[in-house]
Amino acid sequence: MRPGPQTSIATSERLARAIRPLPEPARGALAEVAAREDLPLVAGAWDRDAAGCLVANVVAVREAGGGSEPDTLDRRILALFPELSSRDLNRLIVAWDEAAGEAGADDDQALRRLLRAALARVEERVAGV
Protein backbone atom coordinates (compact mmCIF):
# COMPACT_ATOMS: atom_id res chain seq x y z
CA MET A 1 0.00 0.00 0.00
CA ARG A 2 1.38 3.37 -1.02
CA PRO A 3 1.38 6.27 1.39
CA GLY A 4 -1.11 9.02 0.59
CA PRO A 5 -0.11 12.53 -0.38
CA GLN A 6 0.83 14.86 2.45
CA THR A 7 0.60 18.25 0.72
CA SER A 8 -0.29 19.90 -2.55
CA ILE A 9 3.35 20.08 -3.68
CA ALA A 10 3.79 18.98 -7.31
CA THR A 11 4.70 15.32 -7.40
CA SER A 12 7.97 15.84 -9.25
CA GLU A 13 8.90 18.66 -6.83
CA ARG A 14 8.28 16.36 -3.85
CA LEU A 15 10.73 13.88 -5.32
CA ALA A 16 13.16 16.62 -6.38
CA ARG A 17 13.31 17.87 -2.78
CA ALA A 18 14.52 14.44 -1.70
CA ILE A 19 17.01 14.18 -4.57
CA ARG A 20 18.48 17.71 -4.32
CA PRO A 21 20.53 17.18 -1.10
CA LEU A 22 21.91 13.80 -2.21
CA PRO A 23 25.62 13.55 -2.99
CA GLU A 24 26.49 13.97 -6.67
CA PRO A 25 27.35 10.27 -7.19
CA ALA A 26 23.91 9.25 -5.90
CA ARG A 27 22.15 11.83 -8.12
CA GLY A 28 24.19 10.58 -11.06
CA ALA A 29 23.16 7.01 -10.33
CA LEU A 30 19.50 8.07 -10.26
CA ALA A 31 19.98 9.76 -13.64
CA GLU A 32 21.49 6.55 -14.98
CA VAL A 33 18.51 4.56 -13.67
CA ALA A 34 16.16 7.05 -15.37
CA ALA A 35 17.97 6.50 -18.67
CA ARG A 36 18.16 2.69 -18.47
CA GLU A 37 14.86 1.35 -19.72
CA ASP A 38 16.11 -2.21 -19.15
CA LEU A 39 15.70 -1.58 -15.41
CA PRO A 40 11.96 -1.60 -14.70
CA LEU A 41 10.74 0.80 -12.02
CA VAL A 42 8.16 0.14 -9.33
CA ALA A 43 7.04 2.10 -6.29
CA GLY A 44 5.63 1.02 -2.96
CA ALA A 45 6.98 -2.55 -3.26
CA TRP A 46 9.79 -3.89 -1.12
CA ASP A 47 8.69 -7.51 -1.16
CA ARG A 48 11.73 -8.65 -3.13
CA ASP A 49 15.38 -7.71 -2.67
CA ALA A 50 15.79 -7.59 -6.43
CA ALA A 51 15.22 -5.40 -9.47
CA GLY A 52 12.37 -2.97 -9.62
CA CYS A 53 12.45 -0.60 -6.69
CA LEU A 54 14.35 2.63 -7.17
CA VAL A 55 17.03 1.73 -4.63
CA ALA A 56 17.57 -1.75 -6.12
CA ASN A 57 18.09 -0.19 -9.54
CA VAL A 58 20.66 2.27 -8.18
CA VAL A 59 22.49 -0.69 -6.65
CA ALA A 60 22.29 -2.55 -9.97
CA VAL A 61 23.91 0.28 -11.94
CA ARG A 62 26.65 1.00 -9.38
CA GLU A 63 27.59 -2.31 -7.81
CA ALA A 64 30.85 -3.50 -9.34
CA GLY A 65 31.21 -7.17 -10.15
CA GLY A 66 28.67 -8.40 -7.63
CA GLY A 67 31.47 -9.83 -5.50
CA SER A 68 29.92 -8.86 -2.22
CA GLU A 69 27.64 -11.10 -0.23
CA PRO A 70 23.98 -10.11 -0.68
CA ASP A 71 22.71 -7.92 2.14
CA THR A 72 19.74 -5.66 2.62
CA LEU A 73 19.30 -3.00 -0.04
CA ASP A 74 19.70 -0.14 2.38
CA ARG A 75 23.04 -1.46 3.64
CA ARG A 76 24.24 -2.13 0.11
CA ILE A 77 23.43 1.37 -1.10
CA LEU A 78 24.96 3.00 1.97
CA ALA A 79 28.13 0.97 1.34
CA LEU A 80 28.17 2.10 -2.30
CA PHE A 81 27.68 5.75 -1.33
CA PRO A 82 29.33 6.28 2.08
CA GLU A 83 28.62 10.01 1.84
CA LEU A 84 24.87 9.25 1.74
CA SER A 85 23.12 9.31 5.10
CA SER A 86 20.46 6.79 6.05
CA ARG A 87 18.13 9.76 6.63
CA ASP A 88 18.66 10.93 3.02
CA LEU A 89 17.98 7.40 1.79
CA ASN A 90 14.79 7.15 3.84
CA ARG A 91 13.60 10.55 2.59
CA LEU A 92 14.20 9.45 -0.99
CA ILE A 93 12.25 6.21 -0.51
CA VAL A 94 9.30 7.97 1.15
CA ALA A 95 9.27 10.79 -1.41
CA TRP A 96 9.40 8.26 -4.26
CA ASP A 97 6.45 6.27 -2.93
CA GLU A 98 4.40 9.37 -2.03
CA ALA A 99 5.03 11.10 -5.36
CA ALA A 100 4.21 7.93 -7.30
CA GLY A 101 1.01 7.43 -5.32
CA GLU A 102 -0.10 11.03 -5.70
CA ALA A 103 0.65 10.99 -9.43
CA GLY A 104 -1.10 7.66 -9.89
CA ALA A 105 2.12 6.41 -11.48
CA ASP A 106 1.71 2.66 -11.40
CA ASP A 107 3.70 1.48 -14.40
CA ASP A 108 7.29 1.76 -15.57
CA GLN A 109 6.66 4.54 -18.09
CA ALA A 110 4.78 6.78 -15.66
CA LEU A 111 7.38 6.22 -12.93
CA ARG A 112 10.22 6.93 -15.34
CA ARG A 113 8.55 10.21 -16.40
CA LEU A 114 8.19 11.14 -12.73
CA LEU A 115 11.86 10.38 -12.00
CA ARG A 116 13.04 12.26 -15.09
CA ALA A 117 10.89 15.30 -14.20
CA ALA A 118 12.30 15.35 -10.67
CA LEU A 119 15.86 15.06 -11.97
CA ALA A 120 15.20 17.93 -14.39
CA ARG A 121 14.06 20.06 -11.43
CA VAL A 122 17.44 19.52 -9.76
CA GLU A 123 19.24 20.03 -13.09
CA GLU A 124 20.55 16.48 -13.25
CA ARG A 125 20.97 15.47 -16.89
CA VAL A 126 19.53 12.12 -18.00
CA ALA A 127 21.42 10.62 -20.95
CA GLY A 128 19.36 10.18 -24.10
CA VAL A 129 16.48 12.34 -22.87
Summarize the main sheet: none
Q: How many beta-strand segments?
A: 0
Shape: globular
Low-confidence stretches: none
Number of helices: 6
Rg (C-alpha, Å): 13 Å
Mean pLDDT: 79
Task: Describe the protein's architecture and organization.
The protein is an all-alpha fold. It has helices spanning 11-19, 24-35, 54-62, 73-80, 86-103, 108-121. It has one domain (11-121). It contains 6 helices and no strands. Helix 1 runs antiparallel to helix 5 (86-103).
Task: Write a concise keyword list for the protein shown above.
0% strand, mainly alpha, 129 residues
Question: What's the structural blueprint in terms of helices and strands?
Answer:
Elements: H1 11-19, H2 24-35, H3 54-62, H4 73-80, H5 86-103, H6 108-121
Helix pairs in contact: 1-5, 1-6, 2-3, 2-6, 3-4, 5-6
What can be said about this structure in brief?
With 129 residues, this protein is mainly α. Helix 2 crosses helix 3 and helix 3 packs across helix 4. The termini are far apart.
